[in-house]
Amino acid sequence: MASRYGQGLLGPRRTEHAVPADHLAALSLPIGDDGVVVGNDAEGRPQVVGFHHPRPYDVVLVGGLWTAQVLALRLAGTGARVAVETGRAHVWTNLVQAAGAGQECITLYDVGRVPPMGPTVSSPVLVVRDCGMRPPRGRVASMPWQSVLTLLPYLSPVAPRLLRGAGLAGIQRVSPDEAQQIGRIMQLPQQDVDALSTLGDGVTLWCTRRERSYALTQPTDAESGLLGTARRLD
Questions:
Q1: Which domain of life is it from (predicted)?
Q2: What is the model's pTM?
């Protein structure tokens, strides 16, 4: 099911342009929305998630570190500043060094030590919270132009609260019991609940309570050289 997660800015007011009706078929766009490509659907169409919003925006990913790191790289590639709050800095160090190219586009912080980032429309921020099964309440919350992505390796006691408060959830392969719990929280059809325990590595169900879209994340050569192939388990 195609969906629209991105929330783009209104562009500048300019004189309208018109084209003859018989020229419309020649017009095309490379992707269906603004944001970052999280993967392709079953028909090979890019699936795009907009992480930058003029309002607080929280995302929960119940999945693997590999996918979270690909998203961090791609968000940094769009010009966003990425702050990673983690208790396992060693698994992020190579990525940070490779992504920086002499600039601090991705920075690491200990749990609870992320400083105010000062996000703006021209300098948006993504905070990645890689804080284990029971992430503490963060000192830095989502705000306009600063989204927060919380990575949960599995469903935990704090997951229902986080999922209910999220604007978007990404669900990778989970156990059948976890799939049933997620299905109730996110109001998923039974066919999607059944599918969650069979998803392949790199496949994510991106969903809200109204929209759903499966995406297979295929790494670029640079991403696979740095992070390896897609994997659900760290």
A1: Bacteria
A2: 0.85
